[in-house]
Amino acid sequence: MQSEHSPIAEVTPAETFQELTADPSARLVDVRTKAEWAYVGLPDVSSTPSREPVLLEWQVFPTMAVSDDFGQTLQSACPDKSTALYFICRSGARSLAAARLMSALGYERCFNVTDGFEGPPDAHGHRGTVAGWKASGLPWRQN
Prior knowledge:
About 25% of the residues lie in helices and about 20% in strands.
């Protein structure tokens, strides 16, 4: 079992989409907030065997306190610890923390999606144009 400080593999959004398409048991775990899902959008994995991302807040808006039951809730949603879990957030920090937790809880294949859904800000301070899921041209939807 990895510790919370064990390295977590980093994968690009394109690699993540490819793996979700190739591995029917793989799951995308979106750890952003309900507000982000509603106002920024969601990765659309409906064309993959995974069908829908697991939506589970790592930090709860508006306080941004780490969710006390994140690990337990994700274990209930994905009980097979050999399942490949691809964690995504806005830019890659929250998802890395979530991947480390689940790795420490015995999940064997945890991956962090580099640059997340929106990536870093561009020269004008706007996200979603430089890197990340949206900028990679991968499918996404607005709720």
